[in-house]
Amino acid sequence: MAASLGTRGMNILESLVGRRALWRLGRLIYRHARRDGHNDPEINGEYALHRRLALWAQRRGEPLDVVDVGANIGYWSSHLLESCREASVEHVNLWAFEPSDEIRAQLTERLQPPPEGYRITIRSEAVSDAPGRAAFDASPGITGIKHLLTDSMLEGGATPSVDVSVTTLVEVLEHEKIDVVDFVKSDVEGFDLSVLRGAAPLMAERRIGLFQFEYNHCWISTRCFLRDVFDLVENLPYRVCKVVPGGLDAYDAWHQELETFFEANWILVRDDLLDAFDVRRGRFTASNTFASDDR
Q: What is the sign, positive or negative, of the torsion defined by CA atoms of 255, 194, 275, 39?
């Protein structure tokens, strides 16, 4: 009865405003409840996490080691460095990866010179799950959507490509003599799962503190799912969380409601850091709705 009345009410509302307007309103409400708003780092929780990370590093009193995979022109890295400087973090080591020569030139210009006590290394490799060589998008211009190219993407020659060197995070930590990296960020337009898989041996050894990655519609073209991430860390000491305004929401397990390909930032948090970063635990109910335990 209640469902029938609800349907009648929605039919009346649709007759008044039209189906398209009703769709837009429903999508707005749904995305807000999911914390899938505009992908603006100033309001989606990403830059707030920078400030939290900087304060944590300052209290810890040790150098902060960060790896930025898919650094592009350096907005993310430069904001993190500024957050650390404002929090009086004395030493930061940053390794930024950007395969595009054109974009890497702007990245280098943006990040130089670093503040005193901060060391920045800019590398030209792509990062994936196996070392070697691979095709990379060589379209002209400065964009944030360049990425590795699969064989199917290369078919027809619609996208110009360039051969680039590929490394893994295991190789990076070995080459750079990094014992434990505090924070990894991956933004590689749908190839993030490959970066994560390449880092799995490090996570098994607890050698990564936090691993942030972007999830969006680009994952469709690489045939990847958020569920793959949950499967990857099932037996590893990490919790899958979502970066949201106000903090981090933790998910105990994958749920079909998560697989929307809406753009969002997710993060793996090592179990000993859950309290330090005020991770909020939550759950799905039988009605397929989620809320953190404190809301």
A: negative
Instruction: Check whether residue 55 and residue 79 sit in a common domain.
Output: yes
The answer, as to whether pTM is greater than 0.90, is yes
**Under 8 Å CB-to-CB from 163, ≥6 apart: which residues?**
133, 134, 135, 136
Residues 256 and 204 in one domain: yes
236-255 per-position pLDDT tens digit:
999 999 999 989 999 999 99
Q: Based on the domain organization, do 124 and 29 belong to the same domain?
A: no
Q: Based on the domain organization, do 23 and 95 belong to the same domain?
A: no
Which residues form the domain of 109? Answer: 38-292
Question: pLDDT tens digit string along 18-46?
Answer: 999 999 999 999 999 988 877 899 999 99
Count of domains forming the chain:
2
Spatial separation of the C-alpha atoms in residues 176 and 206, rounded to whole Å? 17
Q: Describe the chain by its helix, strand, coil percentages, rounded to 5.
A: 40, 25, 35
Question: Residue 145 has what pLDDT?
Answer: 82
- Give the helix ranges, DSSP H, for the chain: 2-17, 19-34, 46-60, 75-86, 101-111, 151-154, 169-175, 192-204, 218-221, 226-232
Is the domain of 248 the same as that of 267?
A: yes
Report residue 295's pLDDT band, with 50, 70 and 90 as the boundaries: low
Decide: 219 and 193 in contact? Cβ < 8 Å: yes
Whether 17 and 61 share a structural domain: no
